[in-house]
Design a protein that fits this description.
Length: 255
């Protein structure tokens, strides 16, 4: 088994929320981390916390050519990606589908589906050549559960979930593991982005119960990639104790 210190992890969406917490946790544990997102200032701050162990990579996952070029140009120390945490994603809009904006739908498809594939396509050949690797895809409970307003967002996460199953099928025997993680409510910038920057509402959806944190999901990622190489954690649904299903949250102790 390869030791943590010899493993490089690429985390997309590492400027905020789940991705930031995951990049920070894994770097703290001794992994080399390539932290990718669009907001360079945040990535630079993270890299500054872990001198030499975190490489900041300014990247828009929607740009296939830029993703390929960025992977080819990684410094040699970070060039062999052992673990891809394919996490960058967003929701846009929370109203009924018949009131949805077409540009919002396309942004979700371009980011959550095509962006995830752009990164996968850049990283997978190296893993296949080395006969080892681990792809951790960030799906959602929206992949398997319907709730009002989820519509296209849920569809994109359903793609991630089913793609993950099919990756496991094709990659069986290749030495490459595939995990998909389906979180329930996680208090991040996700809802603020989804609602177009409405800070008040973006925060209030996490009030009155104890939501998950990015750190909670980072702990799950660390577990999934830390088990022995012959063990594949296929799929994990992670819920707040106060949430039974999508759209079913009960207030509970918040501390
Ligand atoms: N929060 C939840 O309740 C929840 C539940 C289930 C699943 N998820 C999934 O978890 C993942 C992370 O979300 P989060 O909750 O941590 O939200 P977040 O705090 O808004 O973080 C989203 C991250 O994705 C990055 N990103 C978005 N578009 C990008 C692009 N075009 N290129 C590169 N990076 C991009 C953002 O970075 P930049 O803006 O700097 O590029 C940011 O780092 C998403 O895939 C989301 O669908 C979230």
């Amino acid at each position: 088994m390869t030791s943590i210190r010899d493993k490089t992890v690429l985390v997309t969406g590492a400027s905020s929320g789940i991705g930031l917490a995951t990049a920070r946790r894994l770097a703290d544990r001794g992994y080399r981390v390539v932290a990718a997102a669009r907001r360079k200032d945040r990535l630079a701050a993270l890299a500054g916390e872990f001198a030499g162990r975190v490489h900041a990579l300014a990247l828009d996952v929607r740009d296939h050519a830029a993703v390929s070029a960025a992977m080819d140009a990684l410094p040699s120390k970070f060039a062999s990606i052992d673990v891809l945490v394919n996490n960058a994603g967003l929701g846009r809009g929370s109203g009924p589908v018949q009131e949805g904006q077409f540009e919002d739908w396309m942004e979700m498809v371009d980011t959550n589906i095509k962006g995830l594939l752009n990164v996968l396509h850049a990283v997978l050949p190296g893993m296949a050549a080395r006969k080892r690797g681990h792809i951790v895809n960030m799906s959602s409970i929206a992949a398997t559960q319907a709730y009002p307003g989820s519509n296209v967002y849920g569809g994109t996460k359903g793609f991630v979930h089913v793609l993950s199953k099919n990756l496991r099928t094709d990659l069986a025997g290749s030495g490459i593991r595939v995990t998909d993680i389906q979180p329930g409510a996680v208090a991040t910038e996700f809802t603020r982005v989804r609602l177009g920057g409405d800070d008040a509402h973006g925060t209030s959806v996490y009030e009155g119960y104890r939501a998950l944190t990015g750190e909670d999901i980072a702990e799950v990622v660390e577990f999934a990639i830390g088990v022995p190489d012959h063990v594949n954690i296929s799929s994990i649904e992670v819920m707040p104790t106060d949430q039974a299903a999508a759209g079913f949250i009960m207030g509970g102790p918040t501390d």
